[in-house]
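Invent a record, attention on tokens:
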Amino acid sequence: MLLLFFKLLIGHALADYPLQGDTMAMAKNRHSSIHAVRWWYWLTAHSLINAGAVLVITGNVWCALAELVLHWLIDFAKCESWINPHGDQFLHVLCKLGYALAL
């Protein structure tokens, strides 16, 4: 369980930082001025990258689908300033812990 959790954290770090990039980080926010492509496309693409990491690591489509939905909602909440970046990362890590425990 600890090894799976550690792998999920590594996948999250890769998907949420270098694979996100500055453009995606800004454009996924509906309040941003960067919207050549609709904000929800960016947010969904970012969430799909994270879901893909969960799928590759766990091999479980249900965990990947949960990640897609939960990551989208958590990042939307952060973009709306309902939670801060620390709360955002805490919730993402909690999701990874939940997947590891479930599997």
Q: What stands out?
A: The radius of gyration is 13 Å. The chain has five helices and no strands. Helices lie at 2-16, 21-27, 39-58, 61-79, 85-102.
